[in-house]
Amino acid sequence: MTSSIFAGVELAPRDPILGLNEAFNADTRSTKVNLGVGVYSDDNGKIPLLAAVQAAEKARLEALPARGYQPIEGPAAYDVAVQKLLFGESSELLAAGRVVTAQALGGTGALKIGADFLKRLNPAAKVYISDPSWENHRALFESAGFAVENYPYYHAASRGVDFAAMKAHLSSLDAGSIIVLHACCHNPTGADLSAAQWEEVVSICRERSLVPFLDMAYQGFADGIDADALAVRLFAASNLQFFVASSFSKSFSLYGERVGALSIITAAKDESVRVLSQLKRVIRTNYSNPPIHGAAIVAAVLSSRRCARNGRRSWRACAIAFATCDWPCWRRSRRKAWPSTFPSSRPSAACSPTPA
Question: What does the record note on quaternary structure (predicted)?
């Protein structure tokens, strides 16, 4: 009898974030708190449906929309709405046709197709992520074939950013190095760069010819929609080429719909045409084209002034709820009580390469 082709398959470690849900569901205590995957829940443990999202979804379902295939890059209405949210209604980049945006399967999917695109573009480059960082950053870029290293970020004594060490490290990197940056609400520390520090990072990226890749998972949850886009807009004004992975999982409470986007900023409109053609090839060999429902809801909310106003109020309400809740886990994340250490972003056998 021949042995199974799967006989040599080893058991993969449980995902360090999503795997906690299994332990949470198995726990019978009424006082339990889920500190695993980042999902906003109300006092009853339910994920609230934002009013603007509910209205847009109701209108969409009543219209009995078509169920055909989307364009590979997603619908234009969605892509344009994403661009305006990130770069501003009057962005010169948008007017010049220098932004390529494609719908993606959440923020994770945006990072994945961006990593795959970059591997084709510059296979010899190294990727640098903050120490610590979201655990899946390393796995995503390693799965694309990149070597991933850390740059210093968290300063335990001050419970803030060790900017001097970060700046010195970035200034030593080779041209073409890919730098993954948290645009706001740094995960897991909550320690963000100031406006002046962001300006210095932009200058270093320009001087060293680095490739910035901004991860924008929490726009609207720190200081507001436009304020949280500061880093993106500073890079936009720098005339650099860069990448932005954005997500609506948190801001629209559409976690299971996997609504994200990858935006690539080019040097000219003709470059955008060529970049989009290659990005579509990456997407086509990953998942062919994106789903309809979640993106249609987001596009409807962002393109309607009334719904957009309601959406901004909803985001603000969620942000206030985060900041005023009494959970010990949140209190520890506030500046005066941040923990002095976080799990490292360095390679670990406990880290699963499975995307969240």
Answer: Homodimer.
Q: How far apart are CA 27 and CA 43, in angstroms?
A: 18
Q: Would you state the pLDDT for residue 228? A: 93
Catalytic, 215? Answer yes
113 Cβ partners below 8 Å, 6+ apart?
102, 104, 262, 279, 282, 283, 286
The one-letter amino acid code at 355 reads P
pLDDT of 39 reads: 73
pLDDT at 177: 98
Note the pLDDT of residue 329: 39
Q: How far apart are CA 43 and CA 51, in angstroms?
A: 18
Write the Ramachandran bin of 247: left for phi over 0, alpha for psi from -120 to 50, otherwise beta.
beta
Catalytic residue among 215, 228, 315, 338: 215
- Alpha helix stretches (DSSP H) within the chain: 19-26, 51-62, 76-87, 92-95, 106-121, 135-143, 163-170, 195-208, 230-236, 269-284, 293-303, 305-324, 328-333
The list of the chain residues with pLDDT below 70 reads 1, 36-38, 305-356
Separation between Cα atoms, residue 228 and residue 81, nearest integer Å: 17
Decide if 32 is catalytic: no
Looking at residue 325, what is its pLDDT? 44
Whole-number Å distance between alpha carbons of 151 and 112: 21
Domain spans of the chain, in order of start: 62-306
Q: Kindly give the pairing relationship between strand 259-265 and strand 99-105.
A: antiparallel
Q: Which of 134, 198, 315, 338 is catalytic?
A: 134
Task: Provide the CATH topology of domain 62-306.
Answer: Aspartate Aminotransferase; domain 2 (3.40.640)
What DSSP character marks residue 75?
-
SS3 (DSSP) at 289 = coil
pLDDT at 326: 38
What is the pLDDT at residue 332? 38
Environment class of 36 (CB within 10 Å of its CB; exposed 0-12, middle 13-18, buried 19+) = middle
Q: Do the Cβ atoms of 226 and 232 come closer than 8 Å?
A: no
